[in-house]
Amino acid sequence: MSQEIDILSRITTDFASLRDAEKKVAELIFADIEFVTEASIGEIAQRAGVSDASVTRFARAIGCTNVRDLKTRLTRALAAGRRFIQEATPEDSSSVVYDIATQTLALNRELLAQADVAGAVEQLDKARQILVFGAGGGSSILCQEFQFRLVRLGYAICAYPQALLPRMVASTLEPNDVVVVLSVTGYTPEMVESAQIARQYGAKVIAITAMNSPLADTSDIVLPITSRETDFIYHPSASRYAMLAVIDVLALELAMRHRERSRTKLRRLKLSLDDHRGGDNRQPLGD
């Protein structure tokens, strides 16, 4: 299924080839897109200082059927959020990275304190195998991070940072298996459907996701995350900090459940790494 091109990108690409009158319509759109989505052809023409016919020609020049089609596509672009159209405010800078990380961690610390972390740790600890599903940007990377955290503690765990493979793997599971599904929104169809399939075969499903989402409704245990996305769109999603914090909490709780075993495995891992890379005894364990 083909996806309709972003109309604002199309206008930007075609701008140089437009007639002068059509360029005035394009400039009006970028100056006040909300006005254009609600105004009549005559109102658009008057505001742009062109004829009604120029507005119609502009719509066709950028691939729209007519002005109504143009306004529909502009409305869709606007629905993504004004922050994706307007420039960020001058005071926004790289310092927001630290501010947003601090705010996100504080917000999610309170949220996780109310969740069934103990239940999740119990299910993970007694699982025959742990499978971690994630699709997309942060979820794909962090499902691998979860594997790295637990494999060094001796758990049988495998990450599947893809879209289709989790569905295939879910259909092979047994009741003593545990699936951890990572999804910031909880709406990614591949993750929701994989969780449903896993539960059909008796596996337990732990979701690190948004509350009251389809994935949360499908899971046995929900470890909720949330983030307050700002209008400063150039900053990567803050939800990564929340998800990583949950992963670290689970890894820590599992390590402390079997302190002697964990200490032994971590020591062996440290010796193996030191033999390979050298350095002092304060270097991290493979991070």
Topology:
Layout: H1 7-14, H2 20-31, H3 33-38, H4 41-48, H5 52-61, H6 67-79, H7 96-113, H8 117-126, E1 130-134, H9 138-151, E2 157-160, H10 165-170, E3 178-183, H11 189-200, E4 204-209, H12 214-218, E5 221-224, H13 239-257, H14 259-277
Parallel strand pairs: 1-2, 1-3, 3-4, 4-5
Low-pLDDT stretches are none
Strand adjacency order, main sheet: 2-1-3-4-5
Structural class by sheet pairing and helices: alpha/beta
Major sheet attributes: 5 strands, parallel
Report the CATH topology name of the largest domain: Rossmann fold
| CATH superfamily annotation of the largest domain | Glucose-6-phosphate isomerase like protein, domain 1
CA distance, first residue to last residue: 41 Å
Number of beta strands = 5
CATH class of the largest domain: Alpha Beta
Protein name: Transcriptional regulator
Keywords: DNA-binding, Transcription, Transcription regulation
InterPro entries: Homeodomain-like_sf, HTH_RpiR, RpiR-like, RpiR-like_SIS, SIS_dom, SIS_dom_sf, WH-like_DNA-bd_sf
Pfam families: HTH_6, SIS
Task: Walk me through the structure.
By secondary structure, the chain is an alpha/beta fold. It has two domains: 78 residues, Orthogonal Bundle (Arc Repressor Mutant, subunit A); 182 residues, Rossmann fold (3-Layer(aba) Sandwich), CATH 3.40.50. It contains 14 helices and five strands. It has a five-stranded parallel beta sheet with strand order 2-1-3-4-5. α2 crosses α4 and α9 packs parallel to α13. The radius of gyration is 25 Å and the shape is elongated. The two termini are 41 Å apart. This is Transcriptional regulator. One of its GO terms (molecular function) is carbohydrate derivative binding. Keywords: DNA-binding, Transcription, Transcription regulation. InterPro entries: Homeodomain-like_sf (IPR009057), HTH_RpiR (IPR000281), RpiR-like (IPR047640), RpiR-like_SIS (IPR035472), SIS_dom (IPR001347), SIS_dom_sf (IPR046348), WH-like_DNA-bd_sf (IPR036388).
